[in-house]
Amino acid sequence: MNMKSEAFLDYYIYNGKVYDSKNMEGFEAIGSPVIYEVIRIIEGVPLFLEEHLERMRKSALLLGLHIQKEDKTVTDEINKLIVMNKCKNINVKLLCSRVNETKQDFLVYFIKSYYPEREVYERGIHTILYYSERENPNAKVLNISFRENINKKIKENNAFEALLVNEEGIITEGSRSNMFFVKGGEVFTAPAKDVLLGVTRNRIMKVCKALNIPVIEKAISVKDIICLDGAFMSGTSVNVLPISSIGKIQLDSVYNRVIDKIAKGYIQQMKSYIQAKKQMV
Predict the structure, then answer these.
(1) Fewer beta carbons within 10 angstroms: which end of the chain, N or C?
(2) What Pfam families does this protein map onto (predicted)?
């Protein structure tokens, strides 16, 4: 499998052993199928770690496979990297390759991370429509060509994200995020069976429930975009990010009160989790 080293900063861990990031051995060994997870580390705390590890295992189960490495070992290796790389605010990637073999390979490494500046939230993002859908939407499986094709389209259109549209003209999710649409005080998002169940997505659902904001698990079609009051994407690095345009259609998401309440509620959940973890140390 042709995969470049993504390891950022000085060290990464491959099958329990620490490697210098210039050493390609761990990445050269990667073979299909590959299941991965990206977790945000804030102030030295891997955010919603338990939920990410659970999702990674569920991705394997959807393929009829099992990740052998134990949660405690993975947690210890993440914490070891935080200390060794002297970095407490970054994204960490967990990658399990050859998941269908007796001897699996497991990498833990920091990746170059981008977190949108305040101005991006204040003006919203431009998105495009991309006519494609995931083969197995609930499983986070590496698909290099799919990612490269979408990245090319995003770059060509000077966009931040692409909304995936299926053959029926239904918007399912973002290429690397979950999508939420707001209309008349209600929030719409694609049914769980049709999308990658993001950890941030699940947290947002809980925030909406706590705030008594109705969430309807129903996908919207391309022709419905013009009727929306607003939309936002969610993801590990972006939290709740308002969408100002989908193709040529402009949306007033930045000033939408429902989106603002959800964004603030999610930030509060993040802070509460980090604080609770710090108190356990």
Answers:
(1) C
(2) Aminotran_4
With a pLDDT cut of 70, the percent of the chain lying above it is 94
Residue 234: partners with Cβ closer than 8 Å, 6 or more residues away = 177, 178, 179, 180, 198, 200, 201, 204, 240, 241, 266
Angle at 9 between CA 25 and CA 149, to 5 degrees: 70
* Domains located in the chain, CATH noted: 11-111 (3.30.470.10), 118-271 (3.20.10.10)
pLDDT tens readout for residues 192-216: 888 778 899 999 999 999 999 999 9
Instruction: State the burial class of residue 20 (Cβ atoms within 10 Å of its Cβ: 0-12, 13-18, 19+).
Output: exposed
Does the pLDDT of residue 139 top 80, yes or no?
no
Q: Beta strands of 16-77 (E only): which ranges?
A: 17-20, 34-42, 45-46
